[in-house]
Amino acid sequence: MCSAARMTSVNVHMHAEMMFIECQLESKLAAAPVLVPIRTKKRYFIPPAVNVKQKSQSEQETKARAAGVVVRQQYIERAINISCTAGIFDPYVPPEGDARLSTLSKEGLKQRTEQLRQSAASQLAFRKIKDHDPEFSTKEFPALAQQIFIDAHAALTQFNKEKLHSLVTERCYPEMVRGNRYKTLRWRFIESLEPPRVVHARCPDMISKGNLYGQVTLRVHSRQTLAIYDRFGRLMLGDEDEPRDVLEYLVLERHLVNPYGCWRLHGKIVPAWAPPKDPIIKTVMIPGPTLKPEEEFEALHYQVPKPKAVQWYK
C-alpha cells in the first residue's frame, strides 16, 4: 500500500510539471509573431530589358501604374516674380543727335512733336507716382538715381551679390552679371558732365488693376573708365587710364503698392543712332617665319605685323 501511494504521488507531481511546461510554451508562442510566407504580386518597377523594342510613354506609365509605382504629375508652369516687371513699358525714344535738330526742319519738327506727346503722358505718370510716394520729386530724384547707378556698378566690380540685389531688379540682375564669372572688372565714375535729369516716366499696372509699378527714365552724361580682363589677366576691353564721356538713358523702377519697395535700377535704353561698341581685344599668337637649321631669328630682323581691329561680335 505504501509503494502504491508513493507511485501515485510521483505521477501526480510529473503531471503537474508537464502542465506547467505546456502553459509556458503556449504563452511564448502566443506572444511571438507568426510569419507565414505567401507569394504575392510583385510591387516594384522592373526596368525594360536591353535590345527590346521601346514602348511608348503611355505604355510605360500604364506598366508602372500596374506595378504600384505612382507617376508624378508634371505641371507645365514656371515661377514668376511680381516684385518687378519683365520689361520696359513704352520705352523712351532718345531723340537723334540728343535733340539738337532745328525745329524748322522736317525731322526737327517731328522730333519736337514726339517729345510733347511723351511729356504729356509722363505728367500723368508723375501724379500716380506721387500718390503712392509723396517724397518723390523730379528735382531730387536724379541725384538719388545717379547714386544708385554708381553703387550698383561698384557692387558689380566687387561681386557683392547681396548688395547688388538690393540695388537692381530681378530683371536687370542677370543682364549685369551674365558672362562676368571668370572676368575682372575695373570701373570708376570720375565726374558728371551734365546734371542728370528725368526725361520720361510711366506708371503701368500688372496682373490686376491698381497693382502699379513706377518706371522713370533718367538721362545721365558722365565721364567713366572701364577695363575688362579675362581670367588670365589679359585686357579684353577698355583702358583703366583712358576716361571716356558716356551718355546713358537709365530706367529705374519701384513697386508702388509695396510699402517696403524702393527705387532700383531696371535697365538701360540704347538709342538706335548710338555709335557701335569697340571690338574686344583678342590675345593670339602671331606665327613667325620658318627658319632653316643654319639660320637664326635675330639675323633676319623680323618685324611683327600689328594686328588689325576686327569686330568679334555683332
From TrEMBL:
Keyword Ribosomal protein applies: yes
Protein name: Large ribosomal subunit protein mL45
Keyword Mitochondrion set for record: yes
SMART domains: Tim44
InterPro entries xref list: mtLSU_mL45, Tim44-like_dom
Keyword terms, alphabetized: Mitochondrion, Ribonucleoprotein, Ribosomal protein, Transit peptide
Domain (Tim44-like): residue spans on this chain: 122-270
Gene that this sequence comes from: LOC109072089
